[in-house]
Amino acid sequence: MKNLAVYIHGKGGTAAEAEHYAPFFDVTGFDYKSETPWEAAEEFPPFFNSHCAKILIANSIGAYFAMTALADKKFDAAFFISPVVDMEKLILNMMRQSNVTEAELRERQEIGNLSWKYLSWVRANPIRWQVPTHILYGENDALTSRATIENFAEKIGATLTVMAGGEHWFHTPEQMAFLDKWLEEFL
User: Fold this and answer.
1) CATH 3.40.50.720 fits 4-84+130-186, yes or no
2) Which of 45, 56, 80, 162 has a C-alpha 20 to 30 A away from that of 156?
3) Cβ(163)–Cβ(172) below 8 Å
């Protein structure tokens, strides 16, 4: 019998992506609606309380939402693909690219896709993740720097595998084959 797992997609993804993991796990995709971590904190726990999954597979912001919403949930293992692990740094980078200062954002509350409430929530709710975790990272990930992912992996005691030439979004046949081989290493 395969291990029971839940797959959490990234932004723009769908629960149907879970089918890719069926050769490895008895997997269910979680089609969440949350767009913020505080919404995820409300939506994620009831779903996971109704599923007895011991394995978590999460992609990009889905991993971030899982780490913030499910910090107290016990899993045997987590497999994160291109996880967002430092949302504050990501938001600050977006602010720099948009020439938005903290003072401006605080005053206006929202500027484009930037939100003072989001940044404030992230700062008040640091990640407290204590699940045995395996991270897959593409060396050309444009959202998270290699130093950021290495520091995070070291901080939580995660294994880190880096795909040379890999991107944030693992989607090409070569990237998916690498992802499958990565999973097989830990099963």
Assistant:
1) no
2) 45
3) no
Distance (Å, rounded) from C-alpha 9 to C-alpha 61? 8
Give the CA angle between residues 39, 168, 100 to the nearest 5°: 60
Are residues 37 and 91 in contact, defined by beta-carbon separation less than 8 angstroms?
Answer: no
Give 12: exposed, middle or buried? Use CB within 10 Å, 0-12, 13-18, 19+: exposed
- The single-letter code of the amino acid at 43 is E
- Whether residue 152 contacts residue 66, with contact meaning beta carbons closer than 8 Å, is answered with no
DSSP 18: G
How many angstroms separate the CA atoms of 61 and 36, rounded?
Answer: 10
Cβ(7)–Cβ(55) below 8 Å: no
pLDDT in tens, 56-85: 999 999 999 999 999 999 999 999 999 999
To which residue do tokens 């930037």 refer?
A: 114
Spatial separation of the C-alpha atoms in residues 151 and 163, rounded to whole Å = 17
Q: pLDDT tens for residues 81-140?
A: 999 999 999 999 999 999 999 999 999 999 999 999 999 999 999 999 999 999 999 999
Whole-model pTM over 0.90 = yes
